[in-house]
Amino acid sequence: MRWGYGLAWIGVLIGLLVAGVASAASLDDVRLSDADDRTRVVFDLDRVPEHRVFSLPDPHRVVIDFEGVELNAADLPRGGVLQEIRTGRQEDGGLRVVLDVSREVEARSFVIGGEDGGQRLVVDLGGQQGGRRQAVRSASEREARDVIVAIDAGHGGVDPGAIGPEGTFEKDVALSVARKLYDLMTEAPGLKPLLVREGDYYMNLRDRTRVAREGNADIFLSIHADGAENPNVKGASVYALSVDGATSEQARVLARRENAADFIGGVSLEDKDDTVASVLVDLSRGHTIEASLEMGEHLLPKLDRHADLLRNRVDQAGFAVLKSLDMPSLLIELGFLTNPEEERRLNTLSYQRDLAEGIVAGVREYAERNILPELRMADAGQNGQREHEVQRGENLSVIAQQYQVSTERLREVNDLSGDGIRAGSTLIIP
């Protein structure tokens, strides 16, 4: 009898072990790209489990600790600042991935993908000793134009949005904070604000994105205040577009509520005239989502200085107001109006300004690192001689494709007899 029980317990243990293995996420591929002063490492998984990313000195390395991951990637690449990828199992069974880097770097990570399909963990290894290097410079040192930020105050007019227990309308809070963002960005070097909704009136979602595109916006921010059935839920949150599904139940519910706003004004999102345009936007949406998530990662810690955060990550969902945009775009929930404490704070002008200052700081940091260098490069092409500092791993063909010139022309302008170029040297771009 005891022997039978023993067999039963062994069967249970084996079943638990099998279940544990079956539930492990699969790391199927590791990819790498290197551009300017950033090396990007992309981990392709069927889903991204709990993980931690941190840096260690002497020697410099970046460590990613995964819980419940099976390594199935055949090749582990190297390039840029990444010298080698090492892996190993920890005592608790977790997978440790070590990125050996050639110098001290700033490591930033974010997740792309939805619940129903594969996901990617993106780890950017960036930063330069002695400050950020501009890969392209203008000989005339002419200042580039400012980064145009479209600020969209959610809801409006017949659509009040969420309503607090004391009767506060989301549309009013969103517009008040949007106006403070406008004022702060007007004073911020390098930023030029564009207010999408200037008063208390209804705008459908397509008109909001149309205003941003016609204003040549580089960034789009949709400002909201959340609502929930549970009055105890509180905290600010940041969302980006997802084409694969929502990253949380809260994101799914929020997207459904925000997308339904278009029908309050009797306007359907089904617009045949935009079909071709939406297909073209889809071609660049992958890059746009990555850029939006990266901007959100800059914004979250700045917002955290002034507000409680619902989650310490950028969530994703299918927001209609973000779907027609081919620019970095975020939907920002300032807090929950249905929480009495947060309703009171969101009605306070000083708190609204604190939130606006946090958002501006994050947007400006992102713009300075990612958009302004591109604008300076374009400006240099129109107004002065361009130069490119050769990075490790680059060759003449890659640089020629980047600037859409021929390799023959590059050789001629730079007096090169062959294709050999040295990292750290400077090329003139015709």
From TrEMBL:
Gene3D superfamilies: 2.60.40.3500, LysM domain, Zn-dependent exopeptidases. It catalyses: Hydrolyzes the link between N-acetylmuramoyl residues and L-amino acid residues in certain cell-wall glycopeptides. GO terms for biological process: peptidoglycan catabolic process. GO terms for cellular component: outer membrane-bounded periplasmic space. Residues 386-429 form the LysM domain. Keywords: Hydrolase. It is an enzyme of class 3 (hydrolase). SMART domains: Ami_3 (SM00646), LysM (SM00257). GO terms for molecular function: N-acetylmuramoyl-L-alanine amidase activity. It holds the Pfam family LysM. Its EC number is 3.5.1.28. This is N-acetylmuramoyl-L-alanine amidase.
